[in-house]
Amino acid sequence: MKRYAYAILAALALLLIAGCAPSEDGAMQLSGDEEITMATVDEYLAADARFVDLRNFSDLFNGGYIAGFEVVPFFQYLEGRALVRNNGWEFSDADVINAAMLENVFGPKESAIVLMCGSGTRAGYVQQALESIGYTTVFNAGGIRDYNGEHKVLGDGRYNGTMALPAEVTMENIDTYLDRPGAKYVDLRNVEDKYVGGYIDGFEVVSFFQYLEGRAVVRNNGWEFSPEDIQNATVIQNIFGAKDREVFLMCGSGTRAGYVKDVLESLGYEHVYNVGGIRDYQGDHRVFGDENAQLAL
Asked: Would you state the pLDDT for residue 157?
């Protein structure tokens, strides 16, 4: 009986050794029976496999990443091109709209693939998608929030995928910084000025003279701001939103923009830029006005 038990154990040991046997180049081969999680993934990083992080690029440099994983963003690349979620995160074969793209990204179907994301949800979904088109050795390692291994590269906790801003944003360089996620671009001129004199595409009008003055602020000393000028901070915050967002201000010459910048900073806004006046703008996003336009407000 003991001999029989020893024989079984020996056979199991041989199977395990064969399953993780090294390839010709010495790399560990994965059989598909391994349990690869955030607790064990460090043991397999040298294996002959693709290690894929499905988070957005900005997530890596914000929250950190595991060295050795390459990025294939689910939301920024796979979704809408190769996959369409018809029922949330519940996968069905109909979700695969471009199997050729998946094969191009993930390689031969016999390759071992280790997936990760933020919590494991995207990794689990993509694992099912790959298995549905014939991949045989795919692992969901889980989410980086559960990783405490030795290969983590720390993020800075702030990066959001956008270019760092210089100390000054002006009419000379504003084109470089248009369309930043979450930013607010405000033209403080009168509404008719926009359609008569032209405007920069992407800036919305919040007229200083026609709306802010008298409702939110009262200038007690010309264009020299003092905290007493603020009459209704709620109106200002309702217009400009969260105090940690980026706010880009412009007007005709930069005077109104400079004044409102002082107002916002006095209320705790941290990233406010006086871009200046449209009269100095020579960029590519100018929409020309009609000097004959007349607006009745």
From this structure: 87
Q: Whose CA is closest to 274, among 237, 249, 242?
A: 249
At 69-105, the pLDDT tens digits run 999 999 999 999 999 999 999 999 999 999 999 999 9
Structure tokens at 120: 């494991």
**Residue 243: domain span:** 174-287
pTM: 0.66
**Nearest CA to 117 among 128, 126, 109?**
126
Pair (19, 149) in one structural domain: yes
- Assign residue 250 the CATH number of its domain: 3.40.250.10
- Chain centroid to CA 36: 27
Cα–Cα–Cα angle for 50, 42, 152, rounded to 5 degrees: 90
**Cα separation, 108 vs 99, whole angstroms:** 12
Distance CA 53, CA 73 (A): 7
How many C-beta atoms surround the C-beta of residue 47 within 10 A?
20
Quick: pLDDT tens for 11-36. 433 333 344 555 555 778 999 999 99
Mean pLDDT of the 187-205 span = 95
Angle in degrees, 0-180, between the axes of helices 233-240 and 255-266, rounded to the nearest 10: 110
